[in-house]
Amino acid sequence: MPPALEKKEKRVTPVMVEEERIRVLIKASARETIIAASSSVDLKNLSGEKTPKKIEGAILTIGVAGDSMTLNGETLASGGVVVIPFLNGKLKVDGKSYRGEIKLTLKKMEYQFLINSTPTHK
Description:
- The protein is mainly β and 122 residues long.
- It is 0% helix and 54% strand.
- It has one domain (33-119).
- It is elongated.
């Protein structure tokens, strides 16, 4: 085939773009937090120690045990966790509903800090 008639292949390189998010501190200095999920949720470990966990809609009791977090009494993670609802489900903390994910982190192996994070809409 003559060079002029050859099909040229277009290559597209994917680019990761950091999504703009709104972050709000929900709760600070909590030893235990109860989160009610309206849908199934994914739990992602911030330290990367374990693979994500899928939990069918439920009440999650997240506590502190030494340098780790616990989920319903079971040791979960040392770096913190992110609770992500499926299909735009809502997460309820202390009677208030939140969209998006909730990040729980440990401070000085004693307290949890909860941060609600949702994407901004342009």
